Amino acid sequence: FFFFVGNMSFVQTVCGLSRVARLVSAGSKHCGGRNMNIRVAGLARASTRAFSSSLGGMRVSGGEGKSGRTRTSLWMVGGVVSGCGAAWLAMAPTQRRASCDAPAGTKVRMALCQIGVTADKAANIYRAKTALQEAANGGAQLVSLPECWNSPYAVESFPVYAEPVPSVGDVGEMLDVEASPSTAMVIQAAKEHGVYVIGGSIPEEEVQRDGSKNVYNTSITVDPTGKIVAKHRKMHLFDIDVPGKIYFKESDTLTAGDRCTYFDTPFGRVGVGICYDIRFPELSAQMRRVGCDILVFPGAFNMTTGPAHWTLLQRARAVDEQVYVVAVSPARSPNTKEYQAWGHSSVVSPWGDVLVEADSDEKVLFCDLDMDKVTEFRSSVPTAQQKRHDVYNMVFFSQGAPPGI
Fold this sequence. Notes:
alpha+beta, seven-stranded mixed beta sheet, globular, 22 strands
């Protein structure tokens, strides 16, 4: 079925095959052999390992014109391949992609809402609402709140301030505003201002089948229509003990999440982690692998870890994965008896440059992300194509869940 010699091309026909369309939309299958590149609708490029070594230098690419039709072209570099159609159709689509590029010339205005947090939940919600409005007024298309913006950052506070949080796909129509005021505000703000809102994080309460309650550190992302498109539960809980400086144990009251989280936008795929998640390069590598160009980490580093590691970790993840890294902190509290966040919300480019950085005070910070730079940096230093899979490899275990869950 698929039989190619030299640079012969195969255009459009693949789009009529449902399994191929599913593969192209979901990513690609990691199944040994050489590198296969997939471009989808001008937004996605996946580099994973190809069908088998018998495919030689096969490359698959596609784009989407103004008509919205996906054009797919395939060519074979050297050699003759036969019987590949069956192999293609047999491949189960996965959620793995090595990069996800925005259309050429795309820039996105990002806003980081570094707001103060108090013990007054209603006041916190109002402050966040005001910051989101300021971000929208400033032309932001993608906005993020900080970690734990509706609650004091304290293990004893998490269960007290926790509220139910809807699942991906919810549009808030059935949401109990009194029970979930923080979530309701984020949904309404995204819809009202027509922007993507990464809702920082708040303590989430979930009732289990046995009647017990789990509390998570949870971030939702809401699209401009008011639909929840991603929900991330902090995977790595902040349990540390630095003698003479800081002791904190989130696991005393929080339960860890277990999913890599990302969502799609017109300007590229965005991955979400929370604070301590940034210390684990495997998670960022997975988000790059599934196609993310921007990684956003709402976080509340403290006065010990902040000066030492906050910027360092952002730059490391940005350079390692060749992505924009955005980290959004609460403002530092004037009350020295409360948890002292480091602040310094910032954006780091794929080259490792700190593009913007706040101080410790309340501020809505703006940064225009040039998505062409992602492609430029990845082409200049093509580490994704230079990995030594014959020597090392990362194995990711799928949860069998759709993106963003």
